[in-house]
Amino acid sequence: MTAKFPEYTRVVAERDGEIVGTATINSHHGGLYEPHRYWVGSATHEQHRHTGVDNAMIEALLEHVQAVQPEQLWTYIREDFVPMVEFLDAFNFNEEFRSWGSHLDVQAFDMDAYLPQKQELEAEGIRFCSYLELDEANRERDLVSFHKQIEEDVPFYEPIIPKERDDIREDNIPDESCFVALDGNTIVGMASLDTCVEGLLQNGLTGVHRDYRNRGIATVLKALVASYAKTQGEVDINAAGSGENQAMRHVNEKLGYMIEPAWITFKAVL
Predict the structure, then answer these.
(1) Burial class (CB within 10 angstroms; exposed 0-12, middle 13-18, buried 19+) of 219
(2) Strands, E, within the chain: which ranges?
(3) Angle at the Cα of 232 (from 171 to 104), degrees rounded to 5?
(4) Whether the Cβ atoms of residue 207 and residue 151 lie closer than 8 Å to each other
(5) pTM for the complete prediction?
(6) Which residues are CB-neighbours of 215 under 8 A, at least 6 positions away?
(7) 240 and which of 39, 101, 139, 143 could share a cystine (Cβ 3.0–4.6 Å)?
(8) CA–CA separation, 11 vs 5, rounded Å?
(9) Which residue in 101, 99, 100, 103 sits closest to 237, CA to CA?
């Protein structure tokens, strides 16, 4: 059975009138239309895994889109689900990169645990404040300029982990959720909140100037963001990054974020 939508197709596998598997193919990802690159995914009932059902569904999907002659197939699968999928070997998928996700129990977060580190940095001349405490005449210009500096150092993999946007904060996220670190009047670090699919609260770009890293500034900034979220009654913050961004992963772990199994992105050339 096939249900077709514009640039999107789903197939299902049946046995004795019951669905035992489903798979999809899609040329859109993250709002991008890329006719040469198609994304696939499948799920098969545990009793029918590694019996050829996955492969047959992907074959059916490829027949459906053969008129457009896609050049690549892509998929991403959480690492603990990879052993359940058989089409990776059958279609010669290779790993491209890994990404990680995490989440913080906001109401269990205790800002007091990070005050000594904040006080040490303040004694060294680093000041922390919210975006709204900056000079109103120049704050947007200064923050955007700093944002553009640090985003060059952030690992990204389009379209799974896109490069940061020019509009660095969502309109529906208040400015007081953005915190900065300053040396004198110069911004040397920033952290903020953002929203993504279905209103999920997540960390925005967190970054520290190259000359100020490995001093705990990012930890204090993200702690301030979490503390703000707690005062607003939020219950969860999501954070994610590329597999090679271990520095930010370690910051999250220090703050109490629960790190989830990695997501692995695979590519096959047709």
Answers:
(1) buried
(2) 2-5, 8-15, 18-26, 28-29, 32-33, 37-44, 72-78, 94-105, 126-130, 179-183, 186-191, 193-195, 201-203, 207-208, 236-242, 258-259, 263-269
(3) 90
(4) yes
(5) 0.81
(6) 121, 124, 126
(7) 101
(8) 12
(9) 103
pLDDT confidence bin for 160, thresholds 50/70/90: low
Interior CA angle at 264 toward 246 and 35, to 5°? 120
The CA-to-CA distance between both ends of the chain, in Å, stands at: 24
Amino acid at position 9, single letter: T
Q: What is the pLDDT of residues 25-49, one digit of tens each?
A: 988 776 667 778 899 999 999 999 9
- Tokens at 60, concatenated: 């059916």
Are 179 and 191 in contact by the 8 Å Cβ rule? The answer is: yes
pLDDT in tens, 50-94: 999 999 999 999 998 888 888 899 999 999 999 999 999 999 999
Take residue 258 and report the two structure tokens written for it: 């629960």
Strands 263-269 and 72-78, by their bridges, are: antiparallel
- What is the token pair recorded at 3? 């249900």
Give, in degrees to the nearest 5, the angle at Cα 238 between 75 and 101: 40
CA dihedral 150, 155, 156, 161 (to 10 degrees): -100
Half-sphere exposure in the Cβ direction for 53 (13 Å, CA)? 22
Diameter of the chain measured on Cα atoms: 72
Tell me the two tokens of residue 107. 């109401």
Specify whether the CB–CB gap between 160 and 207 falls below 8 A: no
* Residue 4 confidence (pLDDT): 43
117 neighbors 216 (Cβ within 8 angstroms): yes
CB 259 within 8 A of CB 239: no
